[in-house]
């Protein structure tokens, strides 16, 4: 049979052609298509050219009306529903040609078959073509209105999970552009939809929830044949790969496998003929149940008739057969594999259940002649299978648990360590928040992963609880590790605060800093760290550890220590904290007291060094004598002061002495020499004093020779201009002017 050859699916009396459909499906090899096939049907008034359109659009050979000398002569009208495969279109596309509506043969009142065929087409088809005349658009008494009302009415009885594509094909288009026709047509469609009675559940449901509406227009076939064919060719391209996402048949929900098409169509027509509502999801399950059972029975019959099985059955009658289990397993595996191949596109739950039944049925093919007792073997096999399943499940569960435990380690260890390193009042609230977030993420992930395992609720909940406890254990372990480094953390914090100012710059002890207050602040910060690390606070319970440590270790050092402070100190002589469970204790009160004593001893040197540096700085910056010494100088030196006033020459002498002293002060850098102490300064100055004095006098002598040099230079210029003396005098003059710096004054006696 040609792939395009048409076959009557349902005759004019409503009888389903089972034999013809089965033959058609085998000829066009529809069973091999799986879910990759599409069904197209066409509706429209009688004699509107539906078959003509299908033959040109899909290459089918439906019988159609003919024309003679411009006058239509009706030779044939479609009766019932016909089916054919589209030629040259992939994937496989099956087209159904429905009997025209408002036909005179059935009479005006007989609309039962019209509604039944419309419902059948909507249930079976992915795409429904509505053939209509262009001159009917906008008319109240249009020929297509009863058809649309029929389609919309029967849609209410069709419980379908997918949307069908309704393609309105406007025939014999006039000169009016499609852009103008389409809005009018869509308005007509909406009016019809609004006027159709609907069940309460769909009173406000829009048309777009049921259908994807498409509109195309074609020219007259008789008047503009070439243009008609060109437009049909362009329309044909849209049916290629129609089942792809976004294609005309892209919604594949509810589609039955191709090898069940005939059975599904027959059952649908039977339900529709009985005037019952058609629930497609339930119908799909029913089809899967029947077809999978048929496939299972076929495979069981094939197993019984298998030549290798028959030979094996005959061989065991004479005794044990070598490799019996391997040979039988091969036959069983082949049988089950064939079932999987043929049933792969049916509903998964039904497919798996029927496969299980087939497997159990195959395993009960008992060989009576051998008189074997298979009960013990079957029981052992069952135990082995259960043990293997348990082993594999345990291994997989262990892998899952390890995976999420490693994720928790990464997510908690580092952040908890960082939070404890910067311990403050918000440390434990932040740790609790972190723990809750990461634990919830891990538990959610594990819970989702466990959904694929067949396990009881109690075991599942235990695994999730164990994961939560593991997360808590990570935090507790990390807190214990950090508590073991509490002394080091305290010293680091003390050094950071004591040796750096508020801008994190190193302190310079100039003498203006309050070392006592800075020390107190640094120790308080270290005590805060100790109190944070003392216990685990994952349950948001209040305690007075910080207050107890402050009263016992900081305030108790005051000279005015009260009896309350003494009693607080005694409260540290314990191995437990008040209101804190022993298992949550990281550092006991006794250990806190010992750590604090060691901390103070190891930080005392830093404080002493700061005090020494501050005192040295003060001494270096204070060169004035004490006030009492200055007053004594004024009183005891009054007579000397009056003497200076009577003889001003002494003031000149003192001024010169001041200048010499100032020069020596600068040259010797006395302030810097005494910065390292008095004795080192004196020793250094004693070695530098004489060279410095000699250097100073040398500079004064050189500066004194500068005016004499300038005088000699002027004399040389004067003698050169007035030279009228003898050669001897000129020679002397010239010689003396050539070396003015090293010249020696001539003695007058010479």
From TrEMBL:
It comes from the Eukaryota. Its main location: endoplasmic reticulum. Residues 706-750 are annotated as: Disordered. InterPro entries: G_GB1_RHD3_dom (IPR030386), P-loop_NTPase (IPR027417), RHD3/Sey1 (IPR008803), Sey1/RHD3-like_3HB (IPR046758). Keywords: Endoplasmic reticulum, GTP-binding, Hydrolase, Membrane, Nucleotide-binding, Transmembrane, Transmembrane helix. Residues 1-624, 670-750 are cytoplasmic. GTP binds at residues 44-51. Residues 34-252 form the GB1/RHD3-type G domain. CDD domains: GBP (cd01851). It is an enzyme of class 3 (hydrolase). It is a multi-pass membrane protein. The keyword Aminoacyl-tRNA synthetase does not apply. It is found in: Endoplasmic reticulum membrane. Its EC number is 3.6.5.-. Residues 708-722, 730-750 have a biased composition (Low complexity). Probable GTP-binding protein that may be involved in cell development. Belongs to the TRAFAC class dynamin-like GTPase superfamily. GB1/RHD3 GTPase family. RHD3 subfamily. This is Protein ROOT HAIR DEFECTIVE 3 homolog. It comes from Brassica napus (Rape).
């Amino acid at each position: 049979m040609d792939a395009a050859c048409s076959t009557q699916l349902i005759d004019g009396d409503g009888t389903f052609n089972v034999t013809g459909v089965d033959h058609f499906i085998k000829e066009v090899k529809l069973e091999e298509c799986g879910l990759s096939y599409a069904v197209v049907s066409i509706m429209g008034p009688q004699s509107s050219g539906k078959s003509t359109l299908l033959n040109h659009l899909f290459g089918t050979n439906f019988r159609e009306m003919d024309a003679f000398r411009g006058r239509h002569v009706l030779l044939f009208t479609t009766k019932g529903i016909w089916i054919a495969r589209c030629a040259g279109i992939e994937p496989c596309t099956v087209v159904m040609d429905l009997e025209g509506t408002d036909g005179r043969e059935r009479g005006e009142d007989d609309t039962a078959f019209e509604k039944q065929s419309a419902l059948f087409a909507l249930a079976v088809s992915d795409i429904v073509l509505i053939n209509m005349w262009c001159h009917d658009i906008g008319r109240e008494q249009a020929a297509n209105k009863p058809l649309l009302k029929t389609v919309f009415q029967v849609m209410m009885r069709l419980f379908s999970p997918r949307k069908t594509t309704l393609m309105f094909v406007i025939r014999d288009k006039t000169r009016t552009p499609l852009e103008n026709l389409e809005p009018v047509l869509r308005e007509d469609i909406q009016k019809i939809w609004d006027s159709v009675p609907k069940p309460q559940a769909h009173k406000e449901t829009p048309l777009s929830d049921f259908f994807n509406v498409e509109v195309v227009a074609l020219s007259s076939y008789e008047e503009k044949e070439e243009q008609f064919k060109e437009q049909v060719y362009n329309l044909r391209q849209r049916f290629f790969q129609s089942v792809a996402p976004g294609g005309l048949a892209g919604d594949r929900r509810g589609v039955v496998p191709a090898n069940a098409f005939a059975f599904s169509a027959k059952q649908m027509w039977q339900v529709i003929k009985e005037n019952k509502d058609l629930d497609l999801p339930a119908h799909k399950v029913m089809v899967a149940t029947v077809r999978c059972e048929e496939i299972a029975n076929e495979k069981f019959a094939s197993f019984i008739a298998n030549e290798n099985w028959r030979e094996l059955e005959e061989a065991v009658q004479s005794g044990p057969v070598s490799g019996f289990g391997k040979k039988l397993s091969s036959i069983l595996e082949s049988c089950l594999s064939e079932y999987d191949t043929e049933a792969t596109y049916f509903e998964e739950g039904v497919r798996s259940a029927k496969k299980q039944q087939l497997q159990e049925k195959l395993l009960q093919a008992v060989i009576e002649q051998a008189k074997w007792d298979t009960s013990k073997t079957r029981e052992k096999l069952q135990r082995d299978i259960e043990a293997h399943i348990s082993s594999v499940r345990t291994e997989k569960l262990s892998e899952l648990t390890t995976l999420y435990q490693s994720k928790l380690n990464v997510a908690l260890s580092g952040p908890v360590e960082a939070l404890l390193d910067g311990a403050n009042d918000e440390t434990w609230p932040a740790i609790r928040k972190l723990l809750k977030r990461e634990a919830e993420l891990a538990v959610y992930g594990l819970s989702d992963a466990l959904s694929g395992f067949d396990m009881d609720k109690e075991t599942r909940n235990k695994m999730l609880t164990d994961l939560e406890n593991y997360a808590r254990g990570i935090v507790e372990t990390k807190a214990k590790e950090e508590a073991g480094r509490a002394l080091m953390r305290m010293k680091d914090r003390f050094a950071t605060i004591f040796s750096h100012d508020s801008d994190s710059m190193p302190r310079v002890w100039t003498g203006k800093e309050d070392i006592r207050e800075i020390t107190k602040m640094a120790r308080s910060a270290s005590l805060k760290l100790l109190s944070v690390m003392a216990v685990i606070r994952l349950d948001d319970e209040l305690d007075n550890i910080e207050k107890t440590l402050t009263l016992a270790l900081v305030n108790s050092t005051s000279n005015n220590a009260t009896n309350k402070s003494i009693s607080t100190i005694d409260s540290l002589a314990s191995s437990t904290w008040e209101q804190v469970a022993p298992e949550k204790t990281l550092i006991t009160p006794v250990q806190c007291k010992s750590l604090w004593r060691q901390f103070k001893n190891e930080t005392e040197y830093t404080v002493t060094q700061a005090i020494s540096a501050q005192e040295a700085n003060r001494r270096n910056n204070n060169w004035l004598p004490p006030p009492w010494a200055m007053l004594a100088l004024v009183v005891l030196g009054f007579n000397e002061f009056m003497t200076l006033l009577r003889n001003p020459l002494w003031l000149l002498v003192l001024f010169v002495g001041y200048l010499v002293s100032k020069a020596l002060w600068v040259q010797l850098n006395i302030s810097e020499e005494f910065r390292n102490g008095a004795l080192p300064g004196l020793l250094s100055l004693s070695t530098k004093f004489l060279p410095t004095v000699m250097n100073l006098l040398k500079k004064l002598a050189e500066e004194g020779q500068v005016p004499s040099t300038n005088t000699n230079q002027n004399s040389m210029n004067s003698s050169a201009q007035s030279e009228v003396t003898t050669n001897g005098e000129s020679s002397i003059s010239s010689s003396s002017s050539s070396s003015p710096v090293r010249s020696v004054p001539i003695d007058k006696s010479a």
